[in-house]
Amino acid sequence: MARSTIVQVVTDNAANNMAAKDMLYVKRPNLFWTSCATHTINVVLEGIRKMRKFKNTLDSAKSLTIFIYAHHKTLSVMRKFTKKRDIVRPGVTRFASTFLTLQSLYEKKDQLRMMSQSEEWEKISHVKKSAKGVQATATLVKPSFWNGVSLCLRVFEPLVNVLRMVDGDTKPSMPWLYGEILKAKEEIRIAVGNLDKNGTGLYKSIIEIVDEKMKKRLDCPIHMAAYCLNPYYSYSKPSIFHNEDVIDGFFAAVETFYHGDYDKQNQVLNEDFHKFKDKAGHFGKNVAQLGCKDYNFSPAKWWANYGTQVPTLQKFAIRILSLTSSASGCERNWSCFEGIHTKKRNRLTCERVEQLVYVRFNHLHAKRKNKAQNNKRADLLVATEATFAQGWMAQGADEEGSDVDPVIGLTWRLIAETCGPDEVTKLRRSARLAMEREIEEEPLSETDGEPINEEDIDFESDQDVVITTGYELEGEEDNDG
Predict the structure, then answer these.
(1) How is the chain split into domains, by residue range?
(2) d(C-alpha 19, C-alpha 23), whole Å
(3) Which residues pair with 11 in a beta bridge?
(4) Which stretch, 13-22, 29-38, 248-257, 464-473, has highest mean pLDDT?
């Protein structure tokens, strides 16, 4: 493989990957090795989620949804008031499920509160007789709970928007990553109301977590160089060129990219970069200034147009600004591989497996891309597997530190391939309800009447819709630190 073919390697921070990085640097010192942005942002969000201010609200929300989904009657009443829409949404990661479900709860806040005061809800015996039922009702009517949900959404949403950007495939994410993280920090500061005026407060605690998890992961030289070379940021805020951390990162990235070639390093750092900063030559054209003000423009194409007078810097810029920052696409590819090469189907040749994975993955990718194009409001974080949200429907189904059982996910995929999507939806509903009733500590009373036939429940999912509702506080404030 040619020396200049590979620019960047993206992995998570597992010990074996870090060991491979050190070994590879010996032979390929001109490579950039970065942490997966999707993985890192999820780590950041999980760290914030564990703060007591947010953990209490999330625990209450999870207990509420588990109680509702654990009984036929509570589930039926909930769907009646929400117009046959579920309150739990599966996401592509555990935290995505958390955010999407909180978002769904808040959107249906009025309907759920009406439900808790309705005759249908009060007539369900285990709502009044069980401690979990009393707690669920109290949660639904407590202003501090809904204020907590609102605060969670306002704090989480800026980082979740970054997660959507890096996990999508609509455009290269490297040019936008660092700038969008800085924007998210500012939005979080506004969301918590500048509570750190005296140097102590919620904002300070959140930012400490963000900075700790990001350090040496999302603030590497390549991230700084991409941020600096993206005219969307640097031309609208020239102070970027005077930021020591950004410029140090840019210098380090140039030295890595043109490793050992001091003539090209000199050309880029002492001549070309000044022309870009000073908007000299083609960079100073009015059309160049207008072309980089749109967030949806392509920084790499912009450099291809206006960087012709600085070819050495242009080559570096186009390569850096065309990179991804996430390895989530590979993760999906591996998931597809698991569905094809199984314990019972393991005699396929390597070539055959590669061909099947290629066809299967690209088929799914094309379907997803077409769906996103047809539905502009489709959320990239929504998953098709209900198993990714089992922690919100069954106690202990998603314990801390554990992921969804891959066997479960694989089983649903195989059933889907055999029976089709309609059949697997029915089977998943039945299996889900059976599991939840089995683990419920308090069984249904015989006086509750005949069980509801799941086939009679019409169901409409809203999981493909992005909710844009504002998150406002109301009534009683939740001052729990």
Answers:
(1) 38-218+360-396+418-442+449-466
(2) 6
(3) 35
(4) 248-257
